[in-house]
Amino acid sequence: MAMESEQHAWIEQEHNPNATILQKFRLYETRSNFYMIGRDKNRTFWRVLKIDRLEPLELNILEDPTMYSESECCEMLKRIHDGNLDGLKFVTTCYGIVGFIKFLGPYYMLLITKRRKIGVLCGHAVYAITKSEMIPIPHSSVQSNMANSKNENRYKKLLCTVDLTKDFFFSYSYHVMQSLQKNISNPETGQVLYETMFVWNEFLTRGIRNHLKNTLWTVALVYGFFKQVKLSVPGRDFKLTLIARRSRHYAGTRYLKRGVNEKGRVANDVETEQIVFEDVPEECPMHLTSVVQNRGSIPLFWSQETSRLNIKPDIRCKNLMISYNVQLIGFSYIVSKKDNKYEATRLHFDNLVNRYGNPIIILNLIKTREKRPRESILRAEFASAIDYVNKDLPEENRLKFLHWDINKCSRNKATNVLTILSKMALYSLNITRFFSCQVNPSSRGRGLLNWSYFEKDDGGDWSVQNWRNANNGTDNLGNSDRRDNGSSRESGNQRVKIQISQKGILRTNCIDCLDRTNVAQYAYGLAALGHQLNSLGLLDAPPIDLDSPLADDLMKAYETMGDTLALQYGGSAAHNKRSVESSHTVSGVLRTLQRYYSNAYMDAEKQDAINVFLGHFQPQQGKPALWELDSDQHYNVGTRGSNYAGENARSLSDGNILCESDSPIEVAKVGKDEDSERSYLDQNQSSNKGLSESTPEISTCESVASYS
Predict the structure, then answer these.
(1) I need a surface site. Which of 24, 32, 127, 542 has the fewest CB within 10 A?
(2) Per-residue pLDDT averaged across 133-158, rounded?
(3) d(CA 466, CA 454)
(4) Which residues contact residue 39 at a Cβ distance below 8 angstroms, ignoring those fewer than 6 apart?
(5) Is the confidence at residue 454, as pLDDT, over 60?
(6) Nearest 5 degrees, angle CA 127-CA 133-CA 136?
């Protein structure tokens, strides 16, 4: 009975989206309590949250279950004012709680005090933060001596270096932490959404969410990039939304977070989604399309140590069963035995399959041949790892591994890098496809996230439930259906027609997953855009000319995204934009120096701030302060004890240990393994039915694009 009542409550909640969404808040205070008053967008109900201010070190929160009208809420506030000697004082207007945090003294509440709308998806507004505030909870009369200690103030200052006004975004009613396809195929709500890998304030909100058993008062922050623009083709306008979601797992800065940890999480893991739709009147069906791609660090145990003397610091790879030490000007390579069964690599790709389904296509852009081996060491080991993982996979689920030395080809003036990348993109798109659906007017009026239960009618409109049943309990993303079939209910005219589903993902990487990767992701986005517009009926044929104004508009969006992601991870704007070789220009050299300065002098503090914000490090009295410990790069067992938790725990099982293993080392030869590679154009692709009957032929310079 309890489960049935929960299902009915969930259905009722979905059909009345405004019934459980608070969007604007006012904070009041007395000597003994804070009172947070929240209301919905339409001013139809008010709720009250009371926070105790007389407890100096603990967090006590009480939620009033009553839903007040405006007049009832005003009357209640008046009674509180009259019942307190010092009255009730207004503190601030706010737009959601980011979370609560404690260092060595009191708890603090993080609030969004100003916001700005940056886009609208299916009628749901998406916001960025323009101002935030950190407010201590206890009244000044009961605060402990620790509240104003030197270390406490330093922790507060450190946390504030995580600038919430840069690159964080949220929505009250649209789940921006999930792709459009996942929102429709797996419409989760509440606590589950906060536990996804793209919600950066999961730790900060964990206490209040677990205590209240709801997410009414908090907002889920996604970190990365969001841009929505209006573009046009002859005679028609459409909206393009570009979203980048950065994973909170194994998060950090360029030289302090490299490769993979032992849980299979990689550094610089970013999901990019491109949503295209045409604005139409509310009484007309709305057609939506989406395509998702991924970038992430090479999933091996490798690192580069920060150096204030070398612009290119040491690279260390621990997967290889060899000892290989090359001393060069500016850098050296030390490769030691580590994870010779590639368990972490396997876990990483298992995670990708769980998120996106099969197939997984890997586009590896690092250098193939070098006079002095550097990137090519990782390239050879990555190929070996994929071959090893593929041995245990059925043929239809094996990883598709594409190598292409983009730098080498860019030096050939007769080669158009974007043309080759576009053909690779079409090859991938032909296999994974993209997501396309049509929403009936009645569904639009209720909101996107209310497409919870649909039936297939005589016209062929698919329900989410029946769509999953047709896939033996899984959707096209490989997500199993967690709901009991008995919970499905027909919901009147709430119907959506799913026309195409994306299955699988293109994963792109270079060394940093910044510059070269961004160029490749633009090429994939352009190829997908042609098919998205064709699906919308805005283009007669999918290909978009590289020299067209539309391609230029899309390039600008991807350039902005590339600069944003590069600043977050590398400390400077992206090198490679329209020219892959732009790093050799004056501006490219300046960016190299800027990135070097940021990595050498600022990354350690930036990493510490991220670790505190994400809850990987939690200060404790009597334990060493964060800045008294080794840098984040040099993890050793027990150096931070119990201060570290979660993905970044300092233990042997975490994978952040980047020093060499003490295990015996087997000596072997590092080879290119060129003979085992063959052009992916030679593969038998007759089984890949997708956007076209055959995979487009790709002409590559010196056949450096290869398929494993």
Answers:
(1) 32
(2) 93
(3) 8
(4) 22, 23, 24, 25, 45, 46, 47, 70, 73
(5) no
(6) 140
